[in-house]
Amino acid sequence: MEELKDRLEDHLVRFTDMLRKQGVKAGTSELQEALLALRYIDPLCKTSFKSALKATLVKKPSELEVFEKTFNRYFVPATEKEKQLEKGWEKEANYREKKKMAEEELKFKEQQLNLKEEEKMVYASLASRDREKIKSFIRDSEQGKKVDASFKPLIESLVKSTLRYRKERVSHVERRPEPVTGDPGWDWMLSSPEPGNNSSASRLLNSDFKDIAEKDIPRVVELSRKISMKLAKILSRRYKLTYKKKKLDMRKILRENISYGGYLVKLKYGHKKKKKLRLLVLGDVSGSMDRYSSFVMTFIYGLSWAVKEVECFVFAEGTSRMTSCFKKGLSFEEVMNRVMQKRVEWGKGTNLAQALERICLDYPGWLNSRTLVIVVSDTRTTHLEDSLQKLQFIKSRVKDVLWLNPLPASQWEEFSSVEKFQHSALMYPCSCLADLEEVFRYNMKI
Amino acid sequence: MIPENVSDLQRCLKETGYICGEETVLTVFLALQLQKPLLIEGAPGVGKTEMGKALSRALNMELIRLQCYEGLDENKALYEWNYQKQLISIQLSRELQKEHLSENDLFTEEYLMERPLLKAIRADQKVVLLIDEVDKCDHEFEAFLFEVLSDYQVSIPEMGTTEARNIPVVILTSNSERELSDALRRRCIYLYLDYPSPQREAEIIKQRCPQVGEELAESVSRAVEVLRRDEKIQKRPSIAETLDWVNALVELNRNELSPTLVENTLNLVLKSHRDQQVFHQETGAHKLLEQV
Questions:
Q1: How far apart are the first and last CA of chain A?
Q2: Residue A344 has what pLDDT?
Q3: How many CB pairs under 8 A join A and B?
Q4: Separation of alpha carbons B137 and A237, rounded Å
Q5: Residue ranges making up the domain that contains A261
Q6: Residue A63, min C-alpha distance to chain B (Å)
């Protein structure tokens, strides 16, 4: 019995550690609580055991899914677990093999091309005919006159461009799961979808905006609107107490206490008038944001439903005010029709500086402490220094500037503009609806 | 007073009219046994507040409710000195030329106005303290709250520290409008309540409206489930609204749902013009009943 107890404790420690590595905030006290809870239930009854662990280790709705997934994979008979782990290791071996193949085949003058892991996997996912084309391009380049190893960066750049182009046309590029447990077998096992949990809402919440199919757009619009309404509530409420220590209002007190012969029996306090937050949204619809423009539009659409005072602009090389298009009560299709009639210049270059300039000149009344500015853009813009200066100016006048960047955080290092804009705005990666929810629910402390 | 096992607790709750799944009961049972606050989250209308009320009935304990809102502070939640009464006492002692009142005479039980938190801590009997919609209060109050909930004691500067005579059963509810701090969450046992399954909702209907026929209870619960699944509907019908609908149908002497009846009584479950419009455009009564 003691041995069984020790093994159970050991498993519980490992299970909690696994949850922790996936972001569940289960500390030592939660673990102690879980062990304590097991005293009151029958640990051999799986349902009770699971419920007890859930009640003590999970503290947020967002952690429930991780818990379910990990529990259903961890607490299974040993043979089944081994089988699943073997599968995970097989996937890992397969992934490594593909990566190795790409590394061996993509060489210039016997030197490996400096490619990212994702690019190597795009190469490995190509049809052999397409791979052969890339290889023959490298071979032909090697044989050119006066071509030496110094040409490698140029070849790398060309191969990268080809792979970027091909990536859009490949149905599936294998991705290695984030290393969370330290055991690749477990990582693959945890990254596989939960059987029975194929809810489309969950799928859409976690799909990158650029991967969302056209048929899913109406549902994404709905989900986006719901999330926007939630975030609008968060934004428009004043959780910082500004008038908690109310000031005595002597005029009101004297008037109220005349009937008591001037004795101050009743106290009256002065209130500050409550002012709701206003939103000023700037959506980037330039060429680099092309794949995310539907997100920009659904996001603004959702906000326009939820917030009373919202000014919306979209920008590329020029800027268009869209507030009138997003009239509350209109369907998304109606809004898009109105947007189309506006003749916005979609898909060109980006000039954030002129968009910010226009706001400063035409809407100075919006630049005060009641306004929160939200920029949705990948930061790639011309006139970078000018944009930075203007953003800094706006930031000094408004409550804050939030920047939702659809580029995954792992790619931020590649763009110097990201780092520069981070000095003037609170920047969050936001490539799917789940990210958007995460930003507003857990990260934002405005 | 606290049931010894999960099935006893489930029976007690059922007797009060609160029907829930085994997982829910087990979580509540653990919170009671471990003497930890129970934090219940979930969509509006799934029965979070009702759980606190049902628990007080099931455990035969007094229910003390603290409704949270923006601007709620310690004065309204913990205690306040009765300023007016103190002032009148001072005036009376002066008018009647009694002995001069000292500060100690003015800060006594007589002038202390207990608010829900202090009342729960000083109660002679174990009570159920329901802190409702905790997500609506401010960060500062939340921080104050978890201090109270971790030690079950409060300090009144003029009177000293008061420790809980009986640790209350604490239920906190939240609609997740604002993210609660990790510190508060860590001090609680967590329960996420979802809408009940159609079978469980039919059971609730039969429990709450005994005069309703089985067939009607089942078709109403399935119809409500279809409405809840529709993501275009903004405000999903709560359990209370389902019960309102059933009661209305019973009043109308109906034993089954028909398209006309659904059309005429829909406003009992869909309470915004937009949701009703969406329902008429996207689903409609006929299609709804086909899915039931």
A1: 53
A2: 65
A3: 100
A4: 11
A5: 242-270
A6: 11
A244 at the B interface (CB within 8 A)? Answer: yes
A145 and A60 within one domain: no
Please, where are the H alpha helices in A210-289? 217-236, 250-257
Q: From CA A404, how far away is CA A394, in angstroms rounded?
A: 17
Q: Are B42 and B193 in contact (CB under 8 A)?
A: yes
Q: Given CB atoms, is B43 within the 8 Å cutoff of chain A? A: no
Which value, in Å, is the radius of gyration of the alpha carbons in chain A?
Answer: 28
Residues of A within 8 A of B30 (CB-CB) are 37, 40-41, 52, 55-56
User: For residue B278, which amino acid is it?
Assistant: V
pLDDT > 60? residue A444 = no
Amino acid at B125: Q
From A149, A167, A185, give the residue that closes a domain: A167
Structure-token match 């930890």, residue found: B36
Q: Do A41 and B6 make contact, defined as CB atoms within 8 angstroms?
A: yes
Total of domains in chain A: 4
A321 assigned to some structural domain: yes
- Distance (Å, rounded) from C-alpha B46 to C-alpha A85? 39
HSE-up (13 A, CA, CB side) for residue A130: 15
Q: How far apart are CA A7 and CA B99, in angstroms?
A: 73
* Site of tokens 């629910």: A441
Q: A246 and A103, same structural domain?
A: no
A104 interfaces chain B, CB cutoff of 8 Å: no
CA A405 to CA A443: how far, in whole Å? 14
Bridge-partner residues for B42, per DSSP? B193
Distance from CA of A58 to the nearest CA of B (A): 7
CB B191 within 8 A of CB B41: yes
Predicted confidence (pLDDT) per residue in A352-399, tens digit:
999 999 999 999 988 988 888 989 898 888 898 999 999 999 999 998
Task: Tell me the pLDDT tens digit for each residue of B4-19.
Answer: 889 999 999 999 999 9
Within a domain: A83: no
How far is Cα A217 from Cα A214, in angstroms, rounded to an integer? 5
Asked if the Cβ–Cβ distance from A41 to B26 is below 8 Å, we say yes
Q: Say yes or no: B139 contacts chain A, CB-CB below 8 A.
A: yes
Q: Which of A25, A37, A230 sits opposite B182 (nearest CB)?
A: A25
Cβ-based contacts of A238 with chain B (< 8 Å): 70
Q: Is residue A397 part of a domain?
A: yes
Chain A, 195 to 214: residues with Cβ < 8 Å from chain B are 201
A9 shares a domain with A149: no
pLDDT digits (tens, 9 = 90+) for A60-97: 888 898 899 899 989 988 888 888 889 889 999 999 99
Which member of B6, B27, B231 has the closest CB to residue A222? B231
Cβ contact (<8 Å) for A51 and B26?
Answer: yes
DSSP state of A413: G
Same domain, A389 and A292: yes
Judge whether A84 lies within some domain. Answer: no
Structure tokens at B149: 């909930």
The per-residue pLDDT for A239 is 46
Q: Indicate whether A335 and A432 sit together in one domain.
A: yes
Contact present, A143 and A109 (Cβ < 8 Å): no
Q: How far is CA A66 from CA A54, A61, B132, in A?
A: 11, 10, 28
Radius of gyration of chain B (CA): 24
Chain A residue whose CA is closest to B191: A55
> What are the beta bridge partners of residue B63?
B128
Residues of B in contact with A222 (CB under 8 A): 231-232
Which residue's entry shows tokens 């039931």?
B292
Taking residue A196's Cβ as centre, other Cβ atoms within 10 Å add up to 8
Given A46, A75, A104, the domain boundary residue is A75
